[in-house]
What does this fold into?
Amino acid sequence: MSELVKLLVEELVTDKDAVKIDQTRSGEYEVIKIIVAEEDKGRIIGKNGKIAKSIRALARVSAIKQGKKVLVEIV
It folds into this structure.
């Protein structure tokens, strides 16, 4: 799951070296935190949050296929 999110995020940002994905477990959820350079946060969030919603939806679909629940946070 985190590999999918990292692949998506790296294609959107200008500073690929600053991309960091942390995956932790919180109760029944896998929590994926996306950490990018400050100037790339807008690219990840998108207009009205559309890109962030899309990333979350793709991660959710991947998690459902694995029988898990996921939360995606942009830090």
